[in-house]
Amino acid sequence: MKNVFDILAERGFVERTTDDEVLRRVLSKPVTCYIGFDPTASSFHVGTLVQIMSLVHMQRSGHRPIALLGGGTGLVGDPSGRTEVRQLLTRKAISRNGRSLKAQLARYLDFSNDRALLLNNATWLLKLRYIEFLRDFGVRFSVNRMLSYESIRAGLDRGLSFIEFNYPCLQAYDFWYQFKHYGCILQMGGSDQWGNIVAGIDLIRRLEGKQAYGITSPLIETADGKKMGKTESGAIWLDARRSTPYDYYQFWINTHDRDVQRFMGLFTLLPMSEVRDVSQLNEGQLNGAKAILAFETTRMTHGRSKAVAAWRSASAAFGRRLVDPSVLPSSEFHRVVRELSGKDWDLKSSDVSIPTTVVSKDLLRKGIPAFELFHMVGLCRSGSEARRLIAQGGGYINSKRIEHFGQNVTSNDMVEGMLVLKAGKKRIHRVTGEG
After folding, report:
1. 3-state DSSP call for residue 389?
2. What is the mean pLDDT of the chain?
3. For residue 157, what pLDDT is reported?
4. What is the CA radius of gyration of the chain?
5. I need a surface site. Which of 98, 205, 355, 400 has the fewest CB within 10 A?
6. Contact 44, 238 (CB under 8 A)
7. CA neighbours within 13 Å on the CB side: how many for 235?
8. What is the CATH number of domain 244-339?
9. What's the pTM?
10. Superfamily classification of domain 4-217
11. What letter does residue 190 receive in the DSSP assignment?
């Protein structure tokens, strides 16, 4: 079996390590590794997938991953990569978020028979007594060295609170605790976690006289310089209640041309021998590859049936993309296309999953200005944004361009009981009436 270090490096997950060659040798045998996840939101977003997929590859290569929820450190707040102090959440809120994150992680990792572990650092951190912690562990940390950490230096520029300054000590304690109780020898994380990882490695060396290791992954930005997972309408979430499977699919199908191959390596399990061929595709084939990327990522996050429904919805709204079967032939997408060939769908079909808002028939009879309707259904974040969109010719109702943002939209505009709103070429929303 190929060494997982080479798999991670080839697919774009490795930015910095404690030692490449030593890690390659260590990872030639099964080890336990961990990544910490912040529970300050009820859902992971797409940017978190880099870390989740790192654990997926570790498990597929025979290693045991630990997904560590920061139920304890979440009460403190990680200063890494932040320009302002994080709003601290209550224990109840963090516990509630943690339950949601557990369910999402279970879609990617197999937790049966301890093949992966799901831990919460509140289990041990909330039991710590402050004076004892300072005496037994605080003495092991050098303030001078902590001040060299990038996350601490960045925090000093805006004013670092004492509670945030404690964070590297707590995360180092996490690594030591898992080393001691679970045999965990490798911590992985984003590039902003390097200082925290090194602190844990140093603590293990000082307390146990043993060696531990670290790997960080690069910060993923899109080709146009945006932070991964951020869009004009906000973050793209893994929770279907916050970002529908259709919206999730559309996020991936709108990937920049220059990002397709890179995202295939990072966010799908398709073989790299096929992914490398993406760089040779012509424009038409590349559009097909985007459909495969969208299908594969949606299938992993929401399941096959939701991915198929999202593809059918996109086909009904924008027309089917012709996908050369020689492009990424291992993808299940090609099997789905063969199974459903010859079948057509329209926007009123029950098996399409286009975002839909139900509006009272009384409101539709009375009428509503077009810009208000676009804002109300979430196609625009504000009324002023909706005005600009329509004024610039980017607003459509049932494929007809809206002439004026104040245009009154009524039930008379409905076709077969619905309105189909489009914002530009890529965002679509369906409106139906009730009552």
Report:
1. helix
2. 86
3. 66
4. 24
5. 400
6. yes
7. 15
8. 1.10.240.10
9. 0.82
10. HUPs (3.40.50.620)
11. E
Query: Which of 49-53, 136-140, 197-201, 401-405 ranks highest by mean pLDDT?
Result: 49-53
Q: Hey, where are the domains in the chain?
A: 4-217, 244-339, 356-434
- Common-topology check for domains 4-217 and 244-339: no
Counted residue by residue, the chain has a size of 435
Enter the tokens of residue 100. 């949601």
Residue 231 in contact with residue 292, Cβ under 8 Å?
no
Residue 289's closest CA among 247, 318, 255, 335? 255
Q: Which long-range CB contacts under 8 A does 340-343 form with residues at least 24 apart? A: 340/308, 340/312
How many other CB atoms sit within 10 Å of the CB of residue 381? Answer: 12
Contacts with 176 (C-beta within 8 Å, 6 or more apart), sequence order:
200, 203, 204, 207, 208
Highest mean pLDDT among 35-44, 225-234, 355-364: 35-44
The lowest-confidence range among 39-53, 112-126, 160-174 is: 160-174
User: pLDDT at position 417, please?
Assistant: 76
Question: Is the CB of residue 212 less than 8 Å from the CB of residue 185?
Answer: yes
Sheet holding 117-120, edge to edge: 16-17, 213-217, 184-190, 32-37, 64-69, 117-120
CA 368, chain centre distance (Å): 36
pLDDT band of 159, cuts 50, 70, 90: low
CA dihedral defined by 263, 268, 271, 273, rounded to 10 degrees?
Answer: -10
DSSP 305-371: HHHHHHHHHHHHHH-PPP--TTSSTTSTHHHHHHHTTT----TT-TT----EEEEEHHHHHH-EEHH
Q: Phi, psi at residue 34, to the nearest 5°?
A: -150, 155
- CATH code of the domain occupying 356-434: 3.10.290.10
CA angle, residues 305, 319, 405, in degrees to nearest 5:
105
Structural tokens at position 281: 């595709």
Beta bridge partners of 35: 67
- Determine the pLDDT at residue 398: 80
Q: Check if the beta carbon of residue 266 is closer than 8 Å to that of residue 12.
A: yes
CB atoms within 10 A of CB 142: 10
- Which helix (H) or strand (E) covers residue 401, if one does? strand 400-401
d(CA 231, CA 226): 8
Q: Which residues pair with 118 in a beta bridge?
A: 67
Distance CA 431, CA 418 (A): 6
